[in-house]
Design a protein that fits this description.
Layout (H helix, E strand, L loop, with lengths): L6 H7 L10 H21 L4 H4 L15 H16 L2 E6 L6 E2 L10 E9 L10 E9 L9 H4 L8 E7 L3 E6 L4 E7 L4 E6 L10 E3 L10 H11 L10 E2 L5 H11 L2 E4 L12 H14 L3 E3 L19 E4 L1 H14 L1 H5 L10
Parallel strand pairs: 1-3, 9-10, 9-11
Antiparallel strand pairs: 1-2, 3-4, 4-5, 5-6, 6-7, 7-8, 11-13, 12-13
The structure holds 2,5-anhydro-1,6-di-O-phosphono-D-mannitol and magnesium ion.
Length: 349
């Protein structure tokens, strides 16, 4: 029987793979993993809220219950603060970035962007949720980090990962040398290497999109959905539709089995829903490292300019051949959307 390899052991083993092998990034990853375990513990208790007290009320220990997404945010920020390797956190839960102002982290080299609890509305119904994180190295050498340090393109990420709190809890991450997955063994409280060198199948048969918004989609997306539903033996169509409303869960499934996840722009939401810095970019980095593609329908996600902390982007991500076909549909049937600039908008077609 082969010995178990924990995340901590794996990180140390692979430290020389990191772009700057001084141990700081290893420490940062371990800090994130510790917070993930704490959040996992609370998520596992979520169903007990009804008997222990609803969010906002007082629990049996006399503590005020917090919404889990706020709790997760606090845990990740606290772990990063204590670790001392991170100078700024950008979180979906905070309008402004959080400057970590402590003696240890004043000159810290890394910036972390995080969605602490993605898909959190699924908590109420016991469906998988996730955490997504992205790590950048600051450009400035020391002192207070600036917006220039924060607003870096996805190509500049030094690491990215997600945690899926599902039927089991997994941490999947990349530092740009492939993708590895670790499953939490609750009996020993460790993430253990369970999915080494993850690769996404080049072709898939699953498409994941909120079809309830169909009427508001650009024509390219509408036609692509119809293409997915048409019978064709050569390409194994019709494809299967799977959508949980938790991007992490939908993308994790598609990473393992092959598929495409789409959150396009709609008539009411010109840039889609998902955020570039802490949702699209980290997922794009992971999926590309696993051999897939991530696009906004026309352009590689990782090449997009980042101008705002909470900037949104449409996303087409997953198996290489599926994303390529979806991009062809966008180019053929929705060329106008491409003309849209960051400031100006043309109608969706
Ligand atoms: P959240 O960060 O507020 O949880 O929103 C992100 C989630 C994704 O996980 C998921 O893919 C998407 O929102 C679902 O949105 P919709 O209900 O519009 O399909
Ligand atoms: Mg989110």
């Amino acid at each position: 029987m082969s010995a178990v390899k924990t995340l901590g052991q794996f990180i140390i083993e692979r430290q020389s793979d990191f772009p700057y092998a001084k141990g700081e990034l290893s420490r940062l990853l371990r800090d994130l993993a510790i917070a993930a375990k704490i959040v996992n513990r609370e998520i596992n208790k979520a169903g007990l809220a009804d008997i222990l007290g609803e969010a906002g009320s007082t629990n049996v220990q006399g503590e005020c219950q917090k919404k889990l997404d706020i709790y997760a945010n606090e845990q990740f920020i606290a772990a990063l603060k204590n670790g001392g390797e991170c100078c700024i956190v950008v979180s979906e839960e905070n309008d402004e970035y959080i400057y970590i102002d402590s003696a240890v982290s004043k000159d810290a080299k890394y910036i972390v962007a995080i969605d602490p609890l993605d898909g959190s509305s699924n908590i109420d119904v016991n469906v998988a949720v996730g955490t997504v994180f992205s790590i950048y190295r600051r450009k400035s050498e020391q002192g207070k980090a600036t917006m220039e340090d924060i607003l870096q393109k996805g190509t500049e990420q030094v690491a990215a990962g997600y945690i899926i709190y599902g039927s089991s809890t997994m941490l999947v991450y990349t530092t740009g040398k492939g993708v590895n997955g670790f499953t939490l063994d609750p009996s020993i409280g460790e993430f253990c290497l369970s999915h080494p060198d993850l690769t996404i199948p080049q072709d898939g048969t699953i498409y994941s999109i909120n079809e309830g918004n169909y009427t508001h989609f650009p024509d390219g997306v509408k036609k692509y959905i119809k293409y997915c539903q048409v019978e064709d033996r050569n390409t194994n169509r019709p494809y299967t539709s799977r959508y949980t409303g938790s991007m992490v869960a939908d993308l994790h499934r598609n990473l393992i089995k092959g598929g495409i996840f789409i959150y396009p722009c709609t008539a009411s939401s010109m840039y889609g829903k998902l955020r570039l810095i802490y949702e699209c970019n980290p997922m794009a980095f992971i999926i590309e490292q696993a051999g897939g593609l991530a696009s906004n329908g026309y352009t590689r996600i990782l090449d997009l300019d980042v101008k705002e902390l909470h900037q949104r982007s449409p996303v087409f991500i997953g198996s290489e051949n599926m994303v390529k076909v979806a991009e062809e549909f966008m180019a053929s049937f929705s060329p106008q959307v491409l003309k849209r600039t960051f400031e100006g908008v043309v109608s969706i077609q």
